Amino acid sequence: MNAFTLLPTGEGLHVEKITSGADTLLIHLVTTTPEVGCPACGQLSLHLHSRYQRTLADLPWNRVAVRIQVQARKFFCDRTNCPRRVFTEPLPELAARYARKTNRLQSALYLIGYALGGEAGARVAVGLGLSVSPDTLLQRVRHVSACSAVSKPVRVLGVDDWAFRKGPHYGTILVDLEQHRPIALFSDREAESLSDWLKAHPEVEILSRDRACAYSEGARSGAPHAVQVADRWHLLRNVAETLDARLGKEARVIREAAYAVQPTPDGHHAPSYNERLKQAAHHKRLDRYTHLQELLVAYPQMSLQEIAKQAGVSRATLYRWQSLETLPPRKGRPRRERLIDPFTDYLQQRWSEGCHNGAQLLREIQEQGFTGTKNMLTHLLRDWRVPLREQKAQKRRWVPSPRAVKWLLLKPPEKRRAQEQAFVEELLERAPMISKAQQLVLSFFTLLRKQSQQTLDAWLASAQESGLAELEQCVKGLNKDKAALVAAVELPYSNGQTEGQVNRLKLIKRSMYGRAKLDLLQARVLPMRQAA
């Protein structure tokens, strides 16, 4: 049998036989290369020393475990000055030295561990017929990452921080913004770490970062020639926060503007359940009366019996209604006295005193001799509760928070609802300083999209002379980092892609359930290595 159909390579290997056990397939191989080179000096040797049996685990066949038994050979090295007197025949395309698994099985374990981690990867491996522990998968991922780490030149670098866990412990991620891949993870976010890395990679020409001082200092120290680009999202956030600060001082104006655009409560309450039933019955009766009068006028030759049938009334009702100009009111039935009626005055007094607890009122009237059920009291109090609910609703009138007002001011007018638009117009009319702050913030948003340095200089001057202390303070901070700000306006690079890589890192870290040390995170977050 040709070994090429079963193994990664058939050169120098021959399949003698295949045996099967209860749950294992065993492939017996022998080596057939006539002469083998010494790994120390390269001298070819035909001088056989001995043979030994080597057992390797391989990929399963249809979830059946496969073992390969290779009858390997040892040779004498005939070169007298070679430090190796005896060497073992290497099989690099089948398995590494001292390995107990084939190369392709090792590659499969690495791919599973890289994609899924330890626990989840082990569960998937069992489903595929691979018996492996979570620790073995993680060990394989670490080993491949450490042995095959490759550093490629980076021209445009993205830098951002990420949290190991909730708290003050942060790390740093570096991303190649042109190749769209993370390239390094640090255990801290200090300037020295970034500076040392940049000194080892002088090819970096552009560095995109947030506005943290540590990263700006590290970039200046490690790559003074590189152009620093401030992240546009952080710039927008910093400028928008000036609106938060301003609106926090205008709570009274916000409340007054919100009340001004809401209708004043008229004091009327919705009809009770019984009132709604009576109104519905009256409208139904009025429709029948109107229809009857229309039939009498339209069809004078039609018999009264036929008209009564079409109008849906009895003949007695027709005789009573046909001569009336308006619908007479319905005669109510005489009201029977209820068990709760003797206690109504007491209940109204307690209700006006502020006792609105039905269970408490029931206990009090039962002590006075009430023998009725709880439902009798519930039906009585149901209509009394309607005005209370409306009073509470009037107290809960809509007043947006300063943060909500900020987003309303930044939202395009066509996307605001009618009430929101009316509120914004009222607020801007009542507070001219808020209107000025909104215009400056929106114009900053626009100039970042248009990417014009001349517009940026004009905006900085306008904000500095606006009379708004919050914006003036923000401009001072922007001027300290003006070179990076100008680069953010002129260059297309930003840290959005880096933020996406941070999100991916967090997803991987949380799926590892605490087994997320820095070396393992580096092995799983950085690009996949060659696992052969």
Commentary on this structure:
With 532 residues, this protein is α/β, with parallel strands linked by helices. The chain folds into six domains: 3-101, no CATH class; 105-147; 156-231 and 494-525, 2-Layer Sandwich (Nucleotidyltransferase, domain 5); 241-262 and 402-490, no CATH class; 296-328, no CATH class; 340-394. 50% of the residues lie in helices and 15% in strands. It contains 21 helices and twelve strands. Strands 1, 2, 5, 6 and 7 form a five-stranded mixed beta sheet that branches. Strands 10-9-8-11-12 form a five-stranded mixed beta sheet, with helices on both faces. The chain has a two-stranded antiparallel sheet with strand order 3-4. Strand 9 (170-176) and strand 10 (181-186) form a beta hairpin. The longest helix has 26 residues, at 273-298. It is elongated. The two termini are 26 Å apart.
Number of strands: 12
Mean pLDDT: 86
Total domain units: 6
Give the strand content: 5-15%
The radius of gyration computed from the alpha-carbon positions, rounded to a whole number of angstroms, is: 43 Å
Give the terminus-to-terminus CA distance: 26 Å
Percent range for helical residues? 40-55%
* Shape field: elongated
Largest sheet data: 5 strands, mixed
Poorly predicted runs are none
Look at the helices and sheets and give the structural class. alpha/beta
So how many helices? 21
